[in-house]
Amino acid sequence: MVGLKRITSDPAVMNGQPCIRGMRLTVRRVLEAIATYPDRRELLAEYPELEDEDIRQALAYAAANLDDKVLEIYEA
User: Fold this and answer.
1) What is the rounded CA–CA span in Å between residue 1 and residue 5?
2) 58 and which of 15, 30, 50, 63 could share a cystine (Cβ 3.0–4.6 Å)?
């Protein structure tokens, strides 16, 4: 994806799941960590290898890969 150079996918690492900078740290794990540690300092203490740009790109990757459809609701 354009602009997400820190998100990598390698079949030899975590079975090709999207990871942060080729590490064994998946985008999914980062998203779970964000939910678990809403305080950014706690998150970075638990995952010291993460950088702010890694977190931003993990969020951008997730947003880009979610299906966002608008459904019209009809009243009967």
Assistant:
1) 8
2) 30
